[in-house]
Amino acid sequence: MRRGTHHVTESCRPVTEVLQLIGDKWTILVVRSLHEGPRRFSEIRRDIPAVSQRMLTLTLRHLERDGLVTRTMTPSIPPRVDYELTKLGRSLLEPISELAQWAVSNSSALDAARAKFDAQNAKKRQLIRA
Q: Can you give the pTM of this predicted structure?
């Protein structure tokens, strides 16, 4: 396989799709916001102040399409819309939590590896310039 080309086998496709889903900027934060039960859009938005209204809407739509979130509209004035994790969505909480634990446990090692790599590359650049 040449550098820059992507080849996903059928057996890898589900993994690739899930990593794309949870790898976006907002999905994990939205799933985490919904872990205690149904929430209104404004409550989710307060939990994630950096997300724009548009991006939160798109993220919720994607999660709904993938069967991870349900959207329930209650006819009232004003209309009430609640979002809730489905059984499938709740099943994502454990692997997300484990990934978060891994990240926290290994953040120092990752930082050290990056610093070592950056230092080595800085030396190489200096040698090339000299």
A: 0.76
